[in-house]
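Hello forum,

I keep getting stuck at the same step: I have a sequence, I want structure tokens, and every attempt I make locally crashes halfway through. Rather than fight my setup again tonight, could one of you with a working pipeline run this one for me? It's a single chain of 399 residues.
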Amino acid sequence: MARIRGQLGRLLDGAAVEWKPLGEIFHLKNGYTPLTTKKEFWENGSIPWFRMDDIRENGRILDDSLQKISESAVKGGKLFSANSIIIATSATIGEHALITVPYLANQRFTNLSLKANYVKTLDIKFIFYYCFPLADWCKKNTTMSSFASVDMNGFRKFQIPIPCPDNPVRSLAIQAEIVRILDTFTELTTELTTELTLRKKQYEYYRDRLLTFEEGEVEWKPLGEVTQYEQPTKYLVQSTDYNDDFTTPVLTAGKTFILGYTDEANGIYKASKTPVIIFDDFTTANKWVDFDFKAKSSAMKMITSADDCNFILKYVYYWLNTLPSELIDGDHKRQWISNFCTKKIPVPPLAIQAEIVRILDTFTELTTELATELRLRQQQYEYYRDLLLSFPKPDDDEK
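Reply #2:
Ran it on my machine without issues. Output:
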């Protein structure tokens, strides 16, 4: 910590830091959605129109959009200027991106364009990085009506640091060095993300190949014959009973999976009994669980091998993950009973099942290691980013 703080200190080298309200630095304008009933607004479009999907799919620095609108859809013929920032002030609050081309965005975004007298004194990429502290502020300062939205009065007053304001050349050099350091972290994280994406695709390819059998090549049996299930009723725990100070994981349905931790005083599912497949009746997601746990959601089912079954349960787990997600109408509690237990699974010899599990375990281990490295790198990046953007405020000198 001292090294990075020292690095920021060396960059400043005693220079003052001036703080300006966001509303003084930027023109703030809301995005909008052209009328969807007018086909001419959406056909043969050439104007980039950004939505949250663009950030999710293509990152936070964007020069093109997934969807475009026509020039006739632009109100007053005016676009938001290139090298501006969009930040979500409702819905997925705090998500933001730097847009490097003239554009429009939907109504979930507030668009920040530098005023003319700040264009030559502020590096927009530096401001882009400072939008991470701004995003944290937005998430903590919302108002509620029909949906959550940011307190825009406070938003306009949010303070932006300007290092060395009396020397624009040096100020821009300080900003540029901070950008260079954070760009390096971002590039490394992006490389790992790309590698992880490719590794997952490779894993899915080989998994599907290994678990695809020609008709007549092997016997097929209904899942309900080779597995049995239990709902985690006696292992359920209330949200008031867990926190991160305990040691036993609390599992929930859906993508969250591990929701918190609890103690082991009451009923617990013991991994020593057998590993289980956790099946989520809402999403049909599957998780392999080989550790002790308690459960938050009764929508989960714990799948184990049927008695005297000639099956390796881990093989069943891998095969289940080749199936597309599918929800059925009606009572979600019967998703497994009414739909999945009737699906037929291929039954190769146990030796082949074991070899398939061995290969896929290896892929899983490699992917997990890479995902862990990416998570640690992301944490490292966020740590250094926060330190590099921790400019001294006037009241800091008084403490």
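The radius of gyration is 27 Å. If your local run keeps crashing, start a new thread with the error log.
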